[in-house]
Amino acid sequence: MLCASSSSFGHASMTIASSPLSRFVGTTLRYDHPARNLITTASASAYPLNKDSPRPKTYKEVTKPFRKIFAREISTQSKDDDISIAKVLLYIAAEDEAFLAFNREMDAMSFVREKENLQDQSDLIKTDSEEEQASVQDQSYPSKTDSEEHLLQLDGKSISEWLSELDAISKEVEAELVSRDIGCHSVQILEAVNTVLFDTRGFERTSKRLALDPKYSYLHSVLNSRCGTAFLFSVIYIEVCQRLGLPIVGARVGEEFLIWPKTENPEELFSEHSGQSLFAIINGRCVDDPGSMASDLTGKSLLGLDVATNRDIIGIALANLIRVHWRRASKPSPGLMLTSPLSQLNNTSVSNFPLLRPQDLRLAIAAAERLLILEPLNWRLRRDLGMMHYYVRQSREAIQELSICIAFAFDEEEAKVLTLFVEKLHLLSSLKSPFGSDRLAVR
Fold it and tell me: Where is this region: Disordered (predicted)?
């Protein structure tokens, strides 16, 4: 029910340096399975209607205010307990939707220009062109004076309205407890949460195949479609139970993210209640799956787990997005790894770039950039970001990230390979090539 498998998030595919997030990560970055569809919930509502706002020229101009808000919310000056996981995940979604809306409009404008250049257009084509041009001009962009409530729109709702969805779920759980005329023991609360989420509201966890669809990795989309990854259901549990006064903690166990009520007596989590342990009630079938590391947990071993902080959980969500978007971006080139060019230094050239989906690649880059705000010394993640910039043909950014990576790398052999690769990039960037373009086509 709630255990997050390897299909739910991407840390199983990336190695990260010794840091709070290092315990969530595997050893090799490999994204070689196809995803389904790109985010389908993105809409022009990411832009408030302000016709006096200047029209941005690049995606960076569009996403800059969103990124500033994200950085402020997870600032090291903030106490971890004061960070709202749900709010930050919604900020992440708002930035990505703003980028998608901008990219979509750029394509629409290009389409209009192409039609205007055609000779002997029919009246119907001219009418369509005028309508499309008008719809494009109706779009506007965030200005420095726009309030955050106006700026951060997701599917026509503000951040506070999406947070109210979680408030509504918690109130339904309270009503469920009252209707049963029972107390507030953690067992009853969690059973009531299950009833409201899965019976009353009809939420369901995605299959492993659907978990690769990016829309199931964004909190607002899960609340809207009532379908999502086990990891995001864990986040919903944490948020709802927090509103009910029941603190929930979690930790990465193998390829799963498990959660449980904070308690001084972990053994009670494994006592049987109505034929199930409390641990199974909240984490689902993985607890009884012999192939899962969760099946070996006891109250004593639970004490040895590293409990995830709010920043850690946000980091897991971002790593999930990197993995999902990279796998979709590399779908036209099955088996492609981010580090593949490092093992093919003799073949690196402008002409042998693999076929990638640039929009998905840009979304993966955005997730990696935000994760680096959380983990600035994470040199392997920085290496991966540099390689993504290489794939999107931004040599200057790639050289910058990889050069920083070389300075922090503890693996001498890998540092040598990266140095050779950076030298190759310097050579390539001096040639006339498509490096450095900000324009991304929608595919």
Answer: 127-147
